[in-house]
Design a protein that fits this description.
- The complex is a heterotrimer of chains A (294), B (290) and C (271).
- Chain A contains eight helices and 14 strands.
- The longest helix of chain A has 18 residues.
- Chain B has one domain: Orthogonal Bundle (MetI-like fold), CATH 1.10.3720.
- The relative contact order of chain B is 0.13.
- Chain C is an all-alpha fold and 271 residues long.
- Chain C has a two-stranded antiparallel ribbon with strand order 1-2.
- Classes of the chains: A alpha/beta (294), B mainly alpha (290), C mainly alpha (271).
- At the B-C interface, helix 1, helix 2, helix 4, helix 5 and helix 6 of B face helix 1, helix 3, helix 4, helix 5 and helix 6 of C.
Chain lengths: 294, 290, 271
Amino acid sequence: MAFLELTNVRKVFPNAQTPAVEDFNLNVNAGEFVSFLGPSGCGKTTTLRMIAGFETATSGSIVMDGRDITPIRPNQRNIGMVFQSYALFPNMNVADNIGFGLKVGGKSKPEIKERVGEMLALIKLEELGNRYPYQLSGGQQQRVALARAIAIRPQLLLLDEPLSALDAKIRLSLRNEIRSIQRQLGITTVYVTHDQEEALSLSDRVVVMNRGLIEQVGPPFEIYNFPTTEFVASFVGTLNLLKVKVIDPATGAIQVDGQTFFTGRPLVNHAAGETAQIALRPGIVQSRQHGARR
Amino acid sequence: MATTISTAPRRHFSWVWLGLTPFFLFAILFILLPSTSLFIDSFRDGQGNFTLANITGLTQSPIPESYWLSIRISAVTAIFGGILGFLLAYSRASGNLPRWLYPVTLTFAAVASNFAGVTLAFAFVNTLGRTGFVTAVLKGLGLDIYGFGFNLYSFLGLSLTYMYFQFPLMLLIMVPAIEGLKKEWREAAENLGASTFQYWLRVGFPLLLPSILATMLLLFGNAFGAYATAFALTGGRLNLITIQIGAQMRGDVLHNVNLGYAMALGMVLIMAVSLVGYTYLQRISERWLR
Amino acid sequence: MRKVAWVAWIIYIFGILYFVLPLFGTFIFSLQKSRGVLSLSAYQSAFADPKFLETFLFSNVMAVCTIIVSLLLVVPTAYWVQLRVPSWRPAVEFVTLLPFVIPAIVLVFGLIKTFGRPVTIFGVPVFPALTTSALSTDFLLVMAYVVLSLPYMYRAVDNGLRAMDVRVLTEAAQSLGAGWGTILWRIIIPNLRSALLSGALLTFAIVVGELTIATFLARPAFGPYLALLGNHKAYEPAALTIISFALTWLAMGLIDLVTRGSKRGPLTGAH
């Protein structure tokens, strides 16, 4: 049984014409890193907020670790969340921010101190425990936010576009750091992003969403190389769309401009002689000298 | 106004500050000059010789008592007005009230915080005076407040009157401050296991505290400098420092104008201290709530 | 959650009662001039006093003059600070805060002291005494009111300027060949309309009922008239209180109307 199960989740905001999320079905395994990828307004953040408990699903169920969490209040869910805007408490220093969840959870002072020390070591900011958020860079702030979310030993970690407020260089290094911390702790993680590169490089599986619906779920390789819908094909990576004629679905033979090519796998749902569309990644196109065979 | 601007040279950047000349000229003539001349003459006697007699004169009865009364009444109305105003702003933010009440509250507050002076004094005489409306209603209910020793022309009475413009001013400033608390802070706290109460105790309220205290200092100054309301309500019956200065100017008492200047100087100093505190707290608040 | 809602309601009702009762009490009182019946005779009698019209008119003229001077002083300054001399902002803002430190009673004391006799610099007279004629005293009165309204006017205008991109608008206008006068008059001021109007209305609310400065400069303003009326009449002051309350309400309502949707400016004056 999967660790996190979302079944037929649907969310309609009051006064909204169309549902924000619809027919959302997904199972996330324990320790898995899953990304929700899609353009803004596609429902990925809404889904994340429903898992965290900040939004209530209009219908459907969300089960975590065998227990339906839909009626549970957000402060009882034991889910860690990292926000796009960091959301560090400005009146507390780094150590107090990280220890906040433990403090309100009634943990003892030495226990909090020890855990905060561990967390500071994990994010490599041991020296900065006494600093205040406004004295930190954006990248440091987001690492503190990550440590704060992990400190409570959550069963599930949610990250809502954690890198989008940072500049490109820091984004890359923090991305790797997030992944390595996640691997180290083996914590089940859901990651929301509109950046396909982030989603593809971080995740075990990617959920591509558009207009409140799931377009495709699969490992990054599959999403990139075998998109099942035109939206996924065009949203993930750059590509060229070409009209082709299917020659033999069983062998994957197609014809472009009178020349025959092979797609490398059988073409299901297509009949011989039918006109179809192929998406061609620019990165795989190689030019060879005329006469050389492919 | 166009002439002021056009006479400022366009390319010679070292001269662009000339555009501010009218403003600073005004400030020097009508703010700086009057206050420095008060300052200087606080250290002079009637013949223009240097003396500290006016400053030492401030320690003679009833002047210290007047300062103390003004400080007490300002502090009391700032604290209670501040608490009531904050609670109102908080109740408003809790979101349990009918929708039409939200904009109306702010207009109410704007009106009430500007409704001070002679008219406010009259309104309270008609309400809590000996024959006032509320006094009569309470008497009808068997509660004779004047029988219990209440008097509108007393410390309590004037405090209640000042409260009328104090709490709406607090409300007016606290509403945007509370709205400035980011939704994410609340969600982050909740996500980490905090209850609503714990959120307010450890995050929301501490974040607002500098702004609350700063606004209370503003209320303090607001009451401390008030003259019209107190004069219209009590005449000379309460020895506030503003009333004392007014009496000096009228030449009613003592007839030592230079002592009056020293009293005014003392007021300015107290106001300056509270403004420095206000600016300091405001800076902390801005750093946090940016 | 229910408990919170209850507490919120109780606090709100207390606040509303605090606000409404004095007005209601005054209103009821103002209707009782004729014994036994409720009537508007206190209002008729208050309006019938020629002194009322005279002082009320005087205060309104003073308010209009204050608004004009204040705008002429504040708008170009705030614009210039925003556009060309942002390094002067702290100094200008410091000056606009000074009226908070100097209460009205101290201000008028200092003004009388300074301008009650000819102003001299090193023995050379540069200014005649201003308190000698009615007109020059009125000038002093207006200047004092400009000082009182300075913090509010400056903040209203500054907020308005910050809400638009002054630099881009100015440069765009310059690149199209506009001079400074045209830029201020045709571009900046029309975009500032709601800020200017709210600053003006607030100034109006501060000035019309003002007592302290008008009293000590001995000018026939509405505030001192009302205070005097309170000494020997009962119902008429109540009627005029209601009237001036209605005027304050009108001013604030108008500010509300013109600033709707934009960020709220400072809606309060000095006491």
